[in-house]
Amino acid sequence: MNAVSFSLILFGVMLNAAAQLLLKAGTNVVGHFEFTPANVLPVGLKLAFEPHIFGGLCCYVVSVVVWIMALSRVPVSIAYPMLSIGYIVNAFFAAWLFGEAVTAQKLIGIGFIIVGVYLVAKS
């Protein structure tokens, strides 16, 4: 895998991770909600106009374009497992931004992900 291909994959993964973090930030602003026939419109509008959620959706759109570019250069059997780098990014940023715990069990799982991504990338 060359530098351009790896950069596209990494950029796509980072956009995807950013999208998740923005969606979480948006739901933190909106708060807990349930869709019922009575509130689907007000809740839907609240979600549609929440800037974090809009930003997250934009990140997803751009990440799809970047991902398609990456897949045009790299076999899917190598590219797809690289998405798991997003789990690592999100675990640490969720701890920093939202106070979510990074437990020993999560760190062990992150270690397995790192080893797996390394093995796939070297194949």
From TrEMBL:
Residues 53-120 form the EamA domain. One of its GO terms (molecular function) is transmembrane transporter activity. It comes from the Bacteria. It is a multi-pass membrane protein. It is found in: Cell membrane. One of its GO terms (cellular component) is plasma membrane. The chain crosses the membrane at residues 52-71, 78-98, 104-121. Keywords: Cell inner membrane, Cell membrane, Lipid A biosynthesis, Lipid biosynthesis, Lipid metabolism, Lipopolysaccharide biosynthesis, Membrane, Transmembrane, Transmembrane helix. InterPro entries: EamA_dom, EmrE-like, Small_drug/metabolite_transptr. It holds the Pfam family EamA. Its main location: membrane. One of its GO terms (biological process) is lipid A biosynthetic process. SUPFAM superfamilies: Multidrug resistance efflux transporter EmrE. PANTHER family: 4-AMINO-4-DEOXY-L-ARABINOSE-PHOSPHOUNDECAPRENOL FLIPPASE SUBUNIT ARNF-RELATED, SMR FAMILY PROTON-DEPENDENT DRUG EFFLUX TRANSPORTER SUGE. This is EamA family transporter.
